[in-house]
Amino acid sequence: MSVVPTQDFKTSVSTNSQNKPSSSVVSALPDTFRCQDGGATPLSTQTNGKHPLESKLKNWDQTQRNRDLEQYRRVFGIAEPMKREMELAIVQNTDFNPLSERAGSGLHQDILLNREACVDWEDVYPGSGIIGGVSMGMDVHGSIEKSLGI
Predict the structure, then answer these.
(1) Contacting residues for 54 by C-beta, under 8 A, at least 6 apart
(2) Most exposed residue of 4, 7, 63, 75, measured as fewest CB within 10 angstroms of its CB?
(3) Confidence band of 75 (pLDDT split at 50, 70, 90)
């Protein structure tokens, strides 16, 4: 049972890995005709180039979910985590949304994931889709203007 996500951060790259086809003349060079991957790639692209905590933060919610399901299995048996996973799959696959004014609101999903008390960015600005500081959709002001017909 893992509390913190596993570390999948690469710190070094081997030049003569045995899992890739290599040239028969020089074993450190990849054989581009056998690999069919578009040619030789620099070793700098094979390392992450990111902070080691970034992968842990990206996998944080899934690791916590797996930990919760493991605890439910140990306490209540296999039926409880199976029931929770089936309920979550039903909620994710349904089109029913009683809160029609907030398209994409996942109130049922938040309850099943024990996040109903958390206030995320999407809860404050639903449908904003801010990527890199640029708004990629309708924000709060746009939805007010649309509802008032301005």
Answers:
(1) none
(2) 75
(3) very high
